Amino acid sequence: MLRKVILYSIIAIVVLILVMVVTTPSKEAFNMWVSSKYNIECKEDGNCFKKGNLIRFDSSHFRNVGLFASYEQQFENSDGEEITIKTLGVFGCFLEIDNSKLWGILN
Q1: Distance between CA 56 and CA 103 in Å, rounded?
Q2: Global pTM?
Q3: Got the DSSP string for 44-100?
Q4: Percentage of the chain exceeding pLDDT 90
Q5: CA-CA distance, 13 to 28, in Å (whole number)?
């Protein structure tokens, strides 16, 4: 009986890991999510716009570790206000993360 429980537990863990790997969002998926959530559109020439106003793309960081992906983008508007977007992607979903210990651990 104990062997069956251990075997089923191992199978469940392997299936969970496979699902996480298959559903990890790509960088393109992050860009589409940021575009729709924050109304930020970046053109091929590097110019980015938020609600029609030009904003400066400052930097970005994308990390895909297989089980999840993290993505950070920084923008600056014409008033000098910084817009920082930190997102965790897992199971095909996007979760916004603030400056917490979790973000430090994941990156």
Answers
A1: 24
A2: 0.75
A3: TTS-EEETTEEEEEEEEEEEE-SS-EEEEEEEE-TTS-EEEEEEEEETTEEEE--SS
A4: 27
A5: 28
